[in-house]
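Worked example 3 (structure in, sequence out).
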């Protein structure tokens, strides 16, 4: 990737929500709505990362069947094992596969290359790494 991308404000907000800060829950919802379309992004990787942050949280909700970060982060290991058995994969695998599938289904690499004047191979070559980077950050907070 040409320049490092980071989403510390997203992860900090996620951490606050995990700890039960109700005000931050509304802020996270707002941020996720903004990230869904990433209109305020600074470059192609920032845009893709924002989309992946949004998609990752939505897939976290899908995987667990819950939409409350505080409750999800309190799930015990037996619940996580059950979810792994039920879905046939870990949360990390589920989220990364879903992000990559979403990117492919919506032609994100091609769209981003056109928008940001980049070579398609550059974005394609970094999709997997960026998806894993975003997922690892989410999981570190939610399911350490």
């Amino acid at each position: 990737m040409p320049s490092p991308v980071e989403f510390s404000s997203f992860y900090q907000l996620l951490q606050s929500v995990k700890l039960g800060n109700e005000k931050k829950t509304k802020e996270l919802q707002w941020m996720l709505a903004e990230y869904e379309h990433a209109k305020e992004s600074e470059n192609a990787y920032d845009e893709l990362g924002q989309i992946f942050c949004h998609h990752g949280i939505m897939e976290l909700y899908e995987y667990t069947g819950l939409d409350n970060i505080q409750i999800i982060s309190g799930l015990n290991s037996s619940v996580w094992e059950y979810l792994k058995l039920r879905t046939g994969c870990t949360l990390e695998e589920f989220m990364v596969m879903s992000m990559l599938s979403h990117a492919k289904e919506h032609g994100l690499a091609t769209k981003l290359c056109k928008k940001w004047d980049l070579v398609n191979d550059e974005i394609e070559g970094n999709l997997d790494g960026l998806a894993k980077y975003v997922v690892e950050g989410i999981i570190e907070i939610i399911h350490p």
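Notes: The chain has eight helices and no strands. Residues 8-142 form one domain.
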